[in-house]
Amino acid sequence: MSASQVDEAREAGSTAEAEPLLRVRGLSKHFPVRSGLRGRHLVRAVDGLDFDVRPGQTLGLVGESGCGKTTTGRMLVRLLEPTSGSIEFDGRDITHAGRRELRPLRQDLQIIFQDPYASLNPRHTVGRIIAMPLQVNGIKPPGGVKARVRELLETVGLNPEHYNRYPHEFSGGQRQRIGIARALALRPKLVVADEPVSALDVSIQAQVINLLRDLQRDLGLAFVFIAHDLAVVRHFCQRVAVMYLGKVVEIGDRADIYERPQHPYTRALLSAIPDVTKLGPAGRIRLAGDVPTPLDPPSGCRFRTRCWKARDICATEEPALVPRDGGRQATACHFPESGPVGAETGGPVDVTVEEVSK
Amino acid sequence: MSLSPVEGVALAEIESGGDAGAPERRDVLGRSPGQLAWRRLRADRTAMVSGVMLIVFLVLALAAPLIEMAYGIGPREQFQNLLDGFGMPLGYAGGVTGEHWFGLEPGLGRDIFIRLIYGLRTSLFIAFAAAVITATIGVVLGTLAGYLGGWLDAVINWITDLTLAMPFLVIALALTPTLVLRFYGEREQVSSAFGVGVLIGVFAIFGWTSTARLVRGQVIALREREFVEAARASGAGLGHMLFRQLLPNIWAPILVSFSLAVPQFITSEAALSFIGVGLSDETPSFGRMIYRSLDYLQTDPAYVFFPGITIFALVFAFNLFGDALRDALDPKSSR
Amino acid sequence: MDRPESAPSGQPGDRPSVPEQRANGDPYLRVRDLRVRFDTTDGVVRAVDGVSFAVERGRTLGIVGESGSGKSVTSLAVLGLHDARRATITGEIFLGGRQLVGLPEEEVRQLRGRDMAMIFQDPLSALHPYYTVGKQIAEAYRVHHPRAGKREARQRAVDMLGRVGIPQPARRFDQHPHEFSGGMRQRAMIAMALVNDPDLLIADEPTTALDVTVQAQILDLLADLQAEFHSAIIMITHDLGVVSQVADDVLVMYGGRAVEHGSVEQVLRRPQHPYTWGLLSSVPSLHGDADADLVPIRGNPPSLINLPSGCAFHPRCRYADRNGDRSRTEVPALSPTGEAGHLVACHLAAEERVRLYREEIAHVGVAR
Amino acid sequence: MARFLIKRLFSATLTLFAVSVLTFLMFFALPRDPVTGMCPKNCNPERLERVRDELGLNDPLVAQYAGYMKGIVTGRDLGSAQGGHCDAPCLGWSYVTNEAVSDTIARVLPVTLSIVIPAAVLWLLLGVGLGMISALRRGTWLDRLAIGFSLTGASLQLYFVGAVLLIVFVYNLRLLPVPSYTSIFDNPVKWASGLVLAWVSLAFLFSAIYARLSRAQMLETLSEDFVRTARAKGLAKPKVYGRHALRAAITPVVTIAGLDVGGALGGTVITETTFGIQGLGRTAVDAVRSGDLPTIMATVLIAAVFVVLANVLVDLLYAAIDPRVRLR
């Protein structure tokens, strides 16, 4: 049984839940990379993802660099062509849909980018930037484009009179709001938000998170929220998928992931976050080494080189993402943990870094 | 603004918070990057001085027939009576008088000043035409190569390499008479318009590579920028991507490279005329004059001096202006 | 203006790990009324405007602030890395009893890398791409040990690489920075900074570019090394979490000025400045009610070129009106609160601040 | 590395092949009949036809090209009028100069080398030095002077500078002899004094460009983080600049220098014409004027070889300087 089956099982249980808006199955992206004399090599940046997003639901994709979360986001809005697997949106298969086939769906599927400086065309006025999706899709909103843009500016908390300003006249947080307004221009059903707050100052982060929460609530938007910061995700997402080296290692509802994480990696991540409420050295789990390069991931369980519970089976057999306790939480681990963070079995093992960096 | 090694960080820190409170107080109409560049240019004294110099040159060139009328001497008039028995101009500094401001050519006895004015006209016309054509070719090829990539990129790159591997002067030298003879007979009088056309054509064939490389690089850099991806994610077509998203962001470097290409073509035209191709002696041009003048280095140095200084002043003004333009368009460029 | 004449000290027993420092109490670095001014085309920028602090050996000072707060400028001023032609530095910087402001460049240079060292945010760009990691570390050693031979320097560099947790240091010595992973590069950077056993280490956002699991390793490593080498550390960061984890004392900067200064316990548990409150309540946390809204600070960080008058924070402060025009017209002095070593620059009365924090702030944000 | 070289040499060969084909086509279209040039007045049509046949000019174009290329690789037999057998690399026989083209090239190539190599050394030292100083002393009068120098140099014409130098040093002051080429092995002093004006004028113009380039590069490098790191280590400024900044700043300069030198080796037409020195460039110009097809082909090909080889060399050099560059 896979994560999707979990979702399906859940669906069978409670008929009240709607059909998934986004259904992703076995989604993979492999990049060819030339290396040395051996010739071509495949980087499995994303390797067989399964997840669903229901209307109005927020799914967080969390992980460290190289885990494939950004690649996944780009595939969902079809900026990248998936290598295999399928993406179904609103009941239609869009995995390999062309520009024309996607056109009616574009309105429903939008993206917010990370870098508030790179994501706005410096030569366009704010009005033009926000109206771009309307213009590109030939949509004339009732009341005119200008009225719609003003309305959007107001929605994201900017002065509608700033219509004719240029991006360089705004601060980082304000620019991110402009990017959000652009994504909302077509009244989408699902927004992929790729690290929307990680480039912002702390005091501004909270403003933008609150804005996104308000929008999600008021407009009933579904989100795929990509982030490396588990604390941010916790404040925004109802469901969370933790990724490691191109795979989902754990997926579950917020309460499960944060209070009862089962995968050692999820626990390590949670434990590593410096916590303002605690003075002095943080949590006791320390992973050794860096994330291995996706060019040459470890065999079996990809996390095993940094895992304190790794045994022989971890090197030979890749653990499947299976639900535990018949619940909505699925974990890809041979030796899942239970209980709250800090109650791990077995102490952190010193994994030599050399092994890791290979 | 230029930054020293350490202040780079410090000032980046200062600037990053920029504009925060300010927009509230400014007028509601924003200033586009283009307007800002224009203001910077206006504030730059070098830019203004060199700009005025260029305008003067341009007006002189355009008004050449008027100047001829006022000056009262044509570019092909000969004043043999003012030359001595060896064909050298009488008087000081190559025959400079109130009537012939820059003196006379030795041998033919034509007026140097009015020939310089017409030479300016020829040179500027050729240079501008060549710069426009090469910029167009360069932008089209560079954009295609950069944006579409793949085999097209490889082919365009290879053609660029090939073009760069051809020795320009030799090929141009050989090509020009070939073309002339193809269209005119062995002894026919070649029209000066044709000569000019051939020259522009030769420049067009060889001159596009740098613009193409520049544009290609810029497009590749922009292609991955998030605002371009945003347009793609909204379903924008090729036209929108190229003309609305990409080109508005690369016109600045294109403009700079254009402004620096014009003086290069002026020099190249002169160089070609200098090695004896390009324009016939009928058409007044800088290179032609210098080429002829070399024979009189010892006997009439003033003849080298006037065209040499004029061409230097022209190219210098263009280079100054091009530099200032670069600074205005890209204030972070190091200067 | 009030200046902290004595080093702000934490509550006794705050950090039992550094006992003897409390006794002799003479800070290794003491900065007093530091001002750094840049003359730019857009006018004079007061990047640092009267900042004072002190750090003892074996203790860590966290300097917190957002972009444009002047925290990096401060650290570069301590190292004397500003270009004298562009930056005007006044005030006092005493390092081990020596005043650095006004000291000839050559003498400051001798101190750099030997008595004080720095690690930077992005180790990839901070290491020279063309030289091997080992060579760069050995070079740092040989600058200050001119009599050391090549072999000795190499041995020292290899030792340091091993000490910071890089496996097979002898082999890694001959690799270039691009052959290292992000975490390894930062370790190498630390090895380079510590190769001369400096008494002061300034770490400018050392973990911002790293993954969170690697950040934890690096912070642990720094703590270990501090215990071993007994150096004073200044940790510059925007992340309150990092501060809470490593700092003994905290300096909060806003618009080039210090707004709150005290022990980590005082600043993070009993903060008295509305800006610190704002930072704490806007940080997303792993605890408490995930569905409650965060409480952001309104507005945007100020531009140093165009700093608001009076209290630089007043346009964003919810309580600015309580003092009539004072917030707009008068720069609040950094003054002692009721607690020893705790300084705050705010026009609100001390009792009111304590009350406000208890009634309005403590239940939101991190403290909830 | 080996793989890179093979690939790179393959593409270089392809480029050279294309150059040779293009040149061949272009000059085949050259309307002047080379034979007419050979016998100016007293040629009757039959004799012309016979010579043309002997030269292979009546063969199909492809056969002519193939013959030419074969000559380069293996050598070939030419008619008795063309000096009999011609060893590889056979570049053909010039009807104009009545000698094997390879002999002409062997005679003029050292001339161009003698002009370019010392000039290149001079312009690199001067240009890079000036650029570095002006970057390090940015904003001072020294910097402004260097900027003025480079702007002036970039706007001057070689023939103008050459002419002025000739007027001053040769005709007026009579400090130097009229420029000419003497082999360095025969008389080094004469070699230098005959070419020094060419070096100086070339170096002046090029160093202006290099001063601008290296100044910009140096300024950019100085704002790099690793320069700050070097200072934070306590390195003295000469070491920071000399060892850390210079090495990074010089890399793009080296690239461009390689390409420029490669281009110049193919013939410094203007310089040679200005100073009346018979090098590769002047030979090419003369060949074009007299319709000397084999000589044109040879000069164009040699110029292309230099450019293409310079490209390969620059790539290798880049990899040698920057360890991040991997050749593949």
Automatic annotation (TrEMBL), chain B:
Keyword annotations from UniProtKB, A to Z: Cell membrane, Membrane, Transmembrane, Transmembrane helix, Transport
Instruction: Tell me the Gene3D superfamilies matching this sequence.
Output: MetI-like
Q: Looking at the UniProt record for this protein, which Gene Ontology cellular component terms does it annotate, in alphabetical order?
A: plasma membrane
**Claim: Transmembrane is one of the keywords in the record:** yes
| GO BP annotations listed | transmembrane transport
InterPro entries in the cross-refs: BP-dependent_transpt_permease, MetI-like, MetI-like_sf, OppC_N
Q: Where is the ABC transmembrane type-1 domain?
A: 120-322
Task: Classify the source by domain of life.
Answer: Bacteria
Q: Name one Pfam family in it.
A: BPD_transp_1
Q: Where in the cell is it found?
A: Cell membrane
Specify the protein's topology with respect to the membrane.
Answer: Multi-pass membrane protein
Q: Kindly list the residue ranges recorded as spanning the membrane.
A: 47-67, 124-150, 162-184, 190-208, 302-325
Q: Which family does it belong to?
A: Belongs to the binding-protein-dependent transport system permease family.
Q: What is this protein called?
A: ABC transporter permease
Automatic annotation (TrEMBL), chain C:
The cross-references to SMART domains, in alphabetical order and at most eight, read: AAA
Name the InterPro entries on file: AAA+_ATPase, ABC_Ni/Peptide_Import, ABC_transporter-like_ATP-bd, ABC_transporter-like_CS, Oligopep_ABC_C, P-loop_NTPase
Q: Which UniProt keywords apply?
A: ATP-binding, Cell membrane, Membrane, Nucleotide-binding, Transport
Q: Which Gene3D superfamilies match?
A: P-loop containing nucleotide triphosphate hydrolases (3.40.50.300)
User: Can the keyword Nucleotide-binding be found in this entry's annotation?
Assistant: yes
Give the family, as the similarity comment puts it.
Belongs to the ABC transporter superfamily.
A single BP term in Gene Ontology: peptide transport
What name has this protein been given in UniProt?
ABC transporter ATP-binding protein
Q: Which GO terms describe its molecular function?
A: ATP binding; ATP hydrolysis activity
Q: How does it sit in the membrane?
A: Peripheral membrane protein
Look up the coiled coil feature and give its residue ranges. Answer: none
Q: Where in the cell is it found?
A: Cell membrane
Which SUPFAM superfamilies did the record assign?
A: P-loop containing nucleoside triphosphate hydrolases (SSF52540)
Which organism is this entry from?
Answer: Micromonospora costi
Automatic annotation (TrEMBL), chain D:
Q: So which domain of life are we looking at? A: Bacteria
Where is the protein situated, by its record's location annotation? Cell membrane
Which GO CC terms are listed, alphabetically?
plasma membrane
Q: List the SUPFAM superfamilies hit by this protein, alphabetically.
A: MetI-like (SSF161098)
> One matching Pfam family, short form?
BPD_transp_1_N
The answer to whether the entry has keyword Cell membrane is yes
Q: Where are the transmembrane segments?
A: 9-30, 111-133, 145-171, 191-211, 296-321
Residues in a coiled coil are none
| Record keywords | Cell membrane, Membrane, Transmembrane, Transmembrane helix, Transport
> Its Gene Ontology biological processes?
transmembrane transport
As for membrane topology, the entry says: Multi-pass membrane protein
Q: Which residues form the ABC transmembrane type-1 domain?
A: 109-318
User: PANTHER family, per this entry?
Assistant: DIPEPTIDE TRANSPORT SYSTEM PERMEASE PROTEIN DPPB-RELATED
What protein family is recorded? Belongs to the binding-protein-dependent transport system permease family.
Q: What is this protein called?
A: ABC transporter permease
